[in-house]
Specification:
Elements: H1 3-16, H2 50-62, H3 71-91, H4 97-131, H5 143-157, E1 173-174, H6 177-182, H7 185-191, H8 195-207, H9 217-230, E2 232-233, H10 238-251, H11 261-282
Antiparallel strand pairs: 1-2
Helix pairs in contact: 1-4, 1-5, 1-8, 2-4, 2-5, 3-4, 5-9, 9-10, 9-11
Amino acid sequence: MDWGTHVVLAAKLLESCSLDKGAAIYSVIPVIDKEPPHFHRVYAHILENQPDFLDVAMEVFNGGGANERDFSILNRRKDEKIKQFNTEIAKLPSDDFEGKRRLEKKIYAHRRIVEETPCFINHAEDAVDIVEDESVSKISTDKLSAAVSLLSHTYFDVWNNPVQIFLPACSHCSAQWEFWNNVDYMKFRSEFYKTENIIPFRKEIAKSKVWDTKLKPEAIIKAMIIRMGEMGQPAIPYEVVDMGIRDIMRYLDIDDYQRADNELEFCHKLENEIREIIYKDYRREKIKSI
């Protein structure tokens, strides 16, 4: 999905989870990896890196400047952080490659998130009218809400392109493979994201009754990861998916076992709803046999 659609979908998902819709902006954080090109969709999109980027995003958005729309504050704080991290890198032993990589990741995250923040905020503000809730434009400080929103990006990206969310443990791609077989793919990619088409889609999916349910936030995180594992081709090993879930839960200090039957059922219903809306205009015509 495109950036604006990610924010709308995240806001509705957060609403169903009784979470803070002001966290919808975190759903677009993964797009920072469009620069440089060799990072695109395989750096901020993968599950292993998302905790690091979420920590930086929350620091950037909630440290002053973002909610006030004063981007000079964000840039000043970014420059201070990058200077600090470069100083720390200079003090590292020459063979501390892991320490250097960790700090370089923070430098990258601070720089790219601040660069894209004005655009992120614009998308959050645009979503207000569709979601019909002003709180979408007020950036949340709630970590669980932000985590659900951030993870939703890769979950919803599977409609657009294959994602390798389980890198580096597994390089297999997850995607809505059957959906792509059933749509006129080139028509879908060339027309769906035009303003005259994507805005009506956002409005229709936002009004869907599929959101009229109560979801447990911790369980929806598990369910989204499971679904991305199930969509893997070739099959993604169970232990890889399980470890991905465990790592995210540990990061969020969630120790209790999460039963996700209801949330998995919701994911299937939501995916079917998205599929049927898109099929109305983009289903591939069956080739008639002679």
